[in-house]
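Entry 14. Ran structure prediction on the chain below.
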Amino acid sequence: MNAEGEVAERLRLEKSIDAMGSTFLIALYGCDRNQMEAALSAAFDEIRRLDEMLSNYRPASKWSEVSRDAAERPVRVSPELFQLLSRCLEFSRRSEGTFDISVGSLQKAWGFFKGTGRLPSRAEVAAARAKVGYQHIRLDPAARTVRFDHPGIELDPGGIGKGYAVDRVVEILQHRGFDTALIAGSASSIYGLGAPPTELKGWRVNIGDPRDPRKAVAEVFLKNMAVSTSGSYEKFFWAEGRAYSHILDPRTGYPAQGPLSVSVVAPHALDCEAWTKPYFINGRQWTAQHKPEGFHVFFCEAGPELACAWL
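Output, structure tokens:
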């Protein structure tokens, strides 16, 4: 509202940045373009900072240092990274090991690290699987250090990085006084802050048909909520007459034989992104028994016809 008591016209500002192997897009509503520009600049600075901290492609990142050195000595980390790793181990315990940040060696064995996939031998899978196990990651809260029980463990931030970055952007925008924005880390982690002027129910987001992502099988309205989707159609390769998905079951070392896609709607993007793969791997029945209150899960499964439904 301006000095004359009139309601100022709301502006929309939309910008994007490439980071974490994805494109982050922010659509922001506000009344002062300079303040909006400054807020987006701060948000993108935060995404760049997290990309540098969490990247397993950058040898100098703290994440890479932990993977490289924690088997030889305790590695001291920042309070932020320690808390994030603690959350990851909590996800692992609650998901019965179907979420595991120590799957880096498996990702490499299957060619999904900097690649599109390859079919490894059983011996290669067994060797990589022997290096996986969140139970072998030791966190010392007093010293704020990370230590591995044995060499070969490699952390993979792919299951939490974009979701955590989206949540941090939401905090930055709110701290700067903004209450209406859409923040998307590619199509896999999306948060709707408030509701746009044209749709008071929230930000309309389509859930794509896993057989043809150009089509929608459902829509959600995000109002201070997030959504993430994982599917076997996102990244896969063909070998010996069958398709192999990038969604690996850490317990077996092989791609999960789950539904076509799973979408999770919850209050935080980190939770959404972390839980899509356990729900994918463990299936509808397990998900129905274990999903927290306030979570909504959408399954699309193959059959004579596509079967999609909310839990």
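Residues 61-156 form a domain with the T-fold fold (CATH 1.10.3980.10). Will compare against last week's run tomorrow.
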